Amino acid sequence: MKSDSSHAHRRACLRLVLILLAVWFTVSLGCGVLFRYWLDANAPNVGTAPFGFWMAQQGSIICFLIILVVYAWQMNRLDNQHGYSEE
Does residue 83 sit in helix, strand or coil? Predict the structure, then answer.
């Protein structure tokens, strides 16, 4: 039945989005704000910048770009699995 397949597709898409949002939240707020001072004290420097500061400024942006690539790749995979491919 198409409705079962569409329901499974929707659940899989929602699960993927929630996982990626949790990663984004953890990296952006956690590494950039909440754990910044701990990271500065306990992690190695990136160039001349402390790691917590670097994560707040550059690392979270790089992580966001990686999340975008993973989202596109996984959504294409899910679409192909459930018969919604564009090809």
Answer: coil
